[in-house]
Amino acid sequence: MAFAVSEAASGAASGATSGVESDSVAVLLDDEPVQPWQYDRSRAPVAVKVLVAGGFGVGKTTFVSSVSEITPLRTEAVMTQASVPTDDLTGTPDKSTTTVAMDFGRITLADDLVLYVYGTPGQERFWFMWDDLVRGAIGGLVLADTRRLRDCFPALDYFESCGLPYAVAVNHFEGSKSYEPEDVREALTIPPDVPVVIMDARRRATVVESLLTLVGHALDATPEQSVPHRSD
Q1: Using the 8-state DSSP alphabet, how is residue 96 labeled?
Q2: How far apart are CA 22 and CA 26, in angstroms?
Q3: How much is the pTM?
Q4: CA-CA distances (angstroms) from residue 115 to 101, 126, 164?
Q5: Are 58 and 152 spatial neighbours (Cβ–Cβ below 8 Å)?
Q6: Residue spans of beta strands (DSSP E) within the chain
Q7: Which stretches of the chain drop beneath a pLDDT of 70?
Q8: Is the CB of residue 174 less than 8 Å from the CB of residue 230?
């Protein structure tokens, strides 16, 4: 996956902040459910941006796809033998594609609050995308797999270094051992004020709960940068 994916990543990086190709836009609009605020300007909500980060194969694409009320935007490339030396498929042997730029979805949490959810690429060779994706975000959610906890340290370090409020969501995979949130906190040496939740990226209810936890923590951590009120 070396050369082909590098080209895809370069193209995605140049277009991440300026828009997506027309066919991707068409995919986003197809079968999109109409929200009340979309046809009533007096009810226009506040939109906030959050990031979903974590190691390779931890479930970021599944997370965004599970929660998005629109058809999610994905930038995936087929994995080839060239990626074998660098991409560990031990925990996800059936994985055949990988995100090379970002995932994107949208969820309306209330009449006055819409979340734009961006999933980051997991492999180190695509980390340059993080600096673009983090702009304007109010917080980040770090997905963790208890079988590979070390894989989420780069995301934890990144959010801490840029001062972005974050929470940790343990994605429970079938066949993996269950742990209590405090056990995960201790293993990752996470500060006591950072939320840690257990969830399943395939179950929308637990994904929504994780996002609500993140938004609440982000607003508590940076009240001066809280979601602005609309002017009438």
Answers
A1: -
A2: 6
A3: 0.70
A4: 19, 24, 16
A5: yes
A6: 46-54, 73-78, 97-110, 113-119, 137-144, 166-171, 196-199
A7: 1-33, 35-44, 74-101, 122-127, 223-232
A8: no
